[in-house]
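Re: that backbone. Tokens:
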């Protein structure tokens, strides 16, 4: 038996490969419309690059090996460290703000499951050089445009939080272990109530106060819409939230106001359980999820104001997000929005007599040079089977050579949607239509 793909890897035969290519085309178009320019990064980098950003935890997931120069290198598990490295090399000459997008395969040795493979494509958007929440609004506005462009309108919801507020919440409840507290909050909707209370206890929250915090998070429900923010924020301040926490809430206020101006008010919520990883993010964090179901996040990101400095670059505020191809595919398939595949063919040239095949080839060449997608039969099939093939290829029209009713030097054009047909001179048939 022939071997299949390795566990955690996928084949993408037609039409899925064409559908994925079409989605990337739409995403690139949306990013460029929002003023982002494309950056291409290597697929293999020094392993040290990823250790600088993520520390030793990345070693558990990175595909590493020793190259012929006896260097430890890795298939890239993400694109942001490469982006930071490239920015540092260009920082003195790069005008601010920098708005880059990247599309690249990445590899992580994770346990495969729905929405997660070991090889995947990420579409990243990053903005460097903007310290205010204008960067967050610009980035989320571009992400929304991108999701609209791929056909996901009405299927998703952005969930926003601020790490400064999340840290202040931990201090308010006496959590001695900040990272354990973040892990507990991140698991709020993923574990049972008893497990969540146990997680809080392990983070240092006094046993008598764990239920109080659980009740507060439960009051936020599935996320608070902009109209419900002020009441919840006032409750937090009344509990004794410290100044850094209040600063985080103020950033959220400004960000929600800008996003409402962008027309996103019906698809943004405040969610205090979004914390995004551990030590990487510095303030704003966000994820997008399907409105229905309990799937993995479609995209995630946040502000990483100190990353460029890790690579010996100048202090540079930065923010970014990544869209995963696997979870986006699940969203679109479940919502009935998955593309059919490659764009439909415009013209299929059909011959009524096999002796006319050379003329069909000639006409196909003329059409392609004129910018029209065109194809002709390669198997010597009957006219009826050629027309069936044209329909399978979703061609807009068939140009039929050799029908008796056509005048000399003319052909028959058949609209494959309506079935109507007309006679055309061959040079008129070449023009896109």
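Recovered sequence:
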């Amino acid at each position: 038996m022939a071997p299949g793909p390795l566990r955690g890897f996928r084949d993408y035969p037609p039409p899925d490969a064409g559908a994925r290519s079409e989605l990337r085309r739409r995403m690139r178009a949306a990013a460029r419309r929002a003023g982002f320019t494309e950056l291409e990064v290597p697929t293999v980098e020094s392993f040290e690059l990823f250790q600088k950003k993520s520390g030793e935890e990345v070693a558990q997931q990175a595909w590493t090996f020793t190259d012929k120069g006896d260097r430890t290198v890795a298939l890239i598990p993400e694109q942001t460290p490469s982006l930071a490295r490239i920015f540092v090399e260009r920082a003195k000459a790069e005008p601010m703000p920098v708005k880059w997008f990247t599309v690249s395969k990445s590899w992580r040795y994770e346990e495969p499951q729905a929405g997660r493979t070991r090889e995947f494509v990420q579409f990243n958007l990053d903005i460097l050089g903007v310290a205010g929440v204008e960067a967050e609004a610009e980035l989320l506005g571009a992400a929304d445009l991108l999701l609209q462009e791929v056909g996901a309108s009405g299927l998703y919801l952005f969930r926003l939080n601020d790490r400064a507020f999340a840290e202040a919440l931990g201090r308010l409840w006496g959590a001695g272990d900040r990272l354990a507290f973040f892990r507990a909050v991140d698991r709020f909707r993923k574990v049972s109530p008893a497990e969540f209370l146990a997680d809080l206890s392990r983070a240092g929250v006094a046993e008598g106060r764990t239920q109080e915090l659980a009740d507060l998070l439960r009051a936020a429900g599935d996320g608070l819409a902009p109209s419900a923010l002020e009441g919840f924020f006032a409750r937090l301040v009344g509990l004794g939230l410290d100044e850094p926490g209040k600063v985080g809430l103020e950033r959220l206020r400004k960000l929600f106001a800008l996003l409402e101006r962008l027309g996103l008010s019906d698809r943004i919520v405040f969610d205090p359980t979004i914390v995004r990883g551990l030590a990487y993010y510095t303030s704003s964090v966000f994820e997008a999820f399907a409105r229905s179901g309990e799937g993995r996040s479609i995209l995630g990101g946040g502000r990483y104001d100190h990353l460029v400095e890790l690579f010996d670059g100048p202090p540079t505020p930065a923010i970014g997000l990544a869209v995963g191809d696997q979870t986006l595919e699940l969203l679109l398939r479940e919502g009935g929005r998955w593309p059919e595949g490659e764009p439909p063919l415009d013209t299929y040239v059909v011959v009524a007599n096999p002796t006319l095949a050379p003329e069909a080839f000639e006409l196909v060449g003329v059409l392609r040079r004129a910018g029209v997608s065109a194809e002709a039969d390669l198997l010597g099939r009957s006219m009826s089977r050629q027309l069936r093939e044209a329909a399978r290829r979703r061609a807009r029209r068939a140009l039929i050579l050799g029908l008796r009713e056509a005048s000399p030097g003319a052909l028959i054009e058949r609209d494959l949607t309506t079935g109507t047909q007309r006679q055309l001179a061959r040079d008129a048939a070449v023009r896109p239509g």
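The first strand starts at residue 37 and ends at 38. Residues 344 and 392 are 10 Å apart (CA to CA).
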